[in-house]
Specification:
With 576 residues, the protein is α+β, with helices and mostly antiparallel strands.
Length: 576
């Protein structure tokens, strides 16, 4: 079977073979991708679309096949839907609106129209991987203007990519140095295709469940750019002699190995995966952080895909990927190099044989000399175990694990605080009406108050915690009090004119890559408006609320949709 071999990652040679005992059973062949051709009401389909898109998708298919083979899994790739004569199938959908009605943030608008049209033909795109080629790129005075959405998202089984079609889009022209392209500035036709054919490959990667990842320094010199990093802009440039081009990283290949479009329907594909890291130990030597331990999981875990992401760089494009196999008994040894000074997050994803993954995140720091704080890796696992017990509403297990944490890591303040916080969350104090606060109390925490109104854009209203992740944390700093405020959100308090100041920290919850704006209003008048926030850094605000009757705390989506817009108010307070 495919999957045996070695993948070279920087200076480290890592076995990526899956034990025979852990082989997934394929129940059906991989289904082909569904390709959709979306035509706004004021445009007509391009005459040569079938041939051009066939060449483009075949090129991308070959790219993935070569990448999987290079990673040691054999020549695996996704399939393409063809008719009885071998012609590429494009499911054409006529949009309800003209091109100008579909903006960059209208992915859901386009998808809903596609979903309805294909449902009428007996297809459910919620159970497919779909690539929507949109006629939403226009030309003005020699400039290519991106009108519609250009994005992708999925979970390894089902997903959607939104990309553009254009008469110049053709993988056969990647080697062209002729003028006539445009991307930010005039460029060659080949460079135009590097960006837009590369964009098809990149957004398809997201639809296949791949996050961003960056190549190592050694890989950049030898192979070029990782597709899921900056490789969407360098795709095929080697055909013009302008660089090394792009490649599929080993960490991406590991996530694809048991994905439905590559492996087909496998046993227990719909089973939710769970995993635990046990006995984790961390050593640092010769510039390499080595993590060892055991992992247990259901379904079985066959590999670890890790992303080392520097917090000072917004987003996750800089997250360098590292992989290792997991032995039949669960033992693993993960080597992480190229450590960068500052605060980082290492996200270790356990890869299960049904294609599912579970993420274990470690926030750690590296000093100016390049030496990491290895203690974080020892105590984070037990802390996450206690958090998972709390999120599962297992009171007895939460209490036992939290108390053991406080005892075992008594000298680590952050662990003591978080363990105590979990115990406090088990018995929350009912929200207090502001009118019931004693007159001699000069300061009160807002997260403990009863609101006149409260709503969030995703999930549920949560005090002193966030859904699914538990701890309120921004910039690596844990906050024991605060409000989860996923955009668009609104919290209203009736102050009755009796309070003087409102103070709070604010920011994006760690691990979230959205963009938000924080607003405070008093009796409808805007008292504070933040700049656009798109990083996980704590900021502070202070507003005069003297004489205010109704106070509103609002988080907006910054005008680009509310995906990953996990805004949080940190330690908000009212003062008399």
């Amino acid at each position: 079977m495919a999957g045996f071999g070695f993948h070279v990652r920087g200076a480290f040679r890592v076995a990526c073979a899956v034990s025979l005992a852990f082989c997934a059973v394929s129940l059906a062949a991989p289904p082909p991708l569904r390709l959709v051709y979306f035509i706004p009401s004021d445009r007509e389909a391009l005459a040569d679309r079938f041939e051009r898109i066939d060449r483009t998708m075949t090129d991308v298919q070959t790219f993935y096949r070569d990448g999987m083979a290079a990673a040691g899994y054999g020549p695996m790739s996704f399939g393409l839907e063809r008719d009885g004569e071998g012609r590429l199938v494009l499911h054409e959908v006529r949009g309800r609106h003209p091109m100008a009605a579909y903006g960059r943030n209208d992915a859901s608008k386009v998808r809903e129209e596609v979903k309805a049209a294909l449902a009428a033909r007996g297809m459910d795109i919620d159970r497919e991987v779909v690539v929507i080629f949109q006629l939403l790129l226009k030309w003005e005075d020699g400039r290519a203007v991106e009108v519609g959405p250009y994005v992708g998202g999925g979970d390894g089984r089902y997903g959607t990519a939104w990309v553009y079609d254009d008469e110049r889009l053709d993988a056969a022209r990647l080697g062209s140095k002729e003028p006539g392209g445009y991307y930010g500035k005039p460029c060659s036709i080949g460079q135009f295709n590097s960006h837009y054919v590369g964009g098809v490959a990149h957004e398809l990667g997201h639809a296949l469940g791949l996050p961003h990842d960056c190549e190592t320094r050694e890989e950049r010199a030898r192979l070029g750019r990782s597709l899921m990093g900056g490789g969407n802009h360098t795709y095929g440039q080697e055909r013009r002699g302008e660089g090394r081009g792009s490649f599929l990283s080993g960490v991406s290949a590991m996530l694809l190995r048991y994905g439905r479009p590559f492996a087909g329907e496998v046993a227990a594909a719909d089973q939710r995966a769970v995993s635990e890291l046990e006995g984790l130990d961390a050593r640092f030597e010769s510039g390499v952080l080595t993590l060892t331990g055991r992992v247990s999981g259901t379904p079985p875990v066959w590999g670890l895909a890790a992303y080392d992401d520097l917090a000072s760089i917004p987003g996750d494009y800089d997250a360098v990927g590292w992989t290792c196999k997991v032995e039949a008994d669960g033992r693993f040894r993960l080597a992480v190099g190229e450590l960068r000074p500052g605060r980082s997050q290492l996200r270790m994803r356990t890869c299960h044989v049904n294609g599912r993954t579970v993420t274990h995140a470690f926030d750690y720091t590296v000093d100016a000399a390049g030496v990491p704080d290895t203690g974080v890796f020892v105590y984070t696992g037990p802390l996450q175990q206690a958090l998972r017990a709390y999120l599962a509403r297992d009171r007895q297990k939460t209490e036992a694990l939290a108390r053991e944490l406080a005892r075992r890591f008594a000298d680590v303040e952050s662990v003591r605080r978080k363990a105590g916080h979990l115990l406090a969350l088990l018995d929350p104090v009912p929200p207090q009406p502001l009118a019931g606060v004693a007159p001699d109390v000069r300061r009160v925490g807002v997260s403990g108050l009863a609101f006149a109104e409260a709503s969030v854009g995703w999930g549920r209203v949560s005090r002193d915690q966030v859904p699914e992740q538990g701890f309120l944390q921004v910039g690596g700093v844990f906050y024991g009090s605060g409000l989860y405020a996923h955009a668009p959100s609104r919290f209203a308090l009736d102050l009755g004119g009796g309070w003087r100041r409102f103070r709070a920290g604010y920011g994006l919850q760690d691990q979230m890559g959205g963009s938000v704006v924080f607003v405070v209003r008093g009796d409808g008048k805007e008292l504070f408006r933040s700049a656009r926030v798109k990083d996980s850094q704590v900021r502070e605000m202070d507003a005069d609320v003297s004489g205010v009757g109704r106070l509103e705390l609002v988080v907006e989506d910054a005008g680009d949709g509310n995906r990953a817009d996990w805004g949080v108010w940190l330690a908000p307070q009212l003062e008399r």
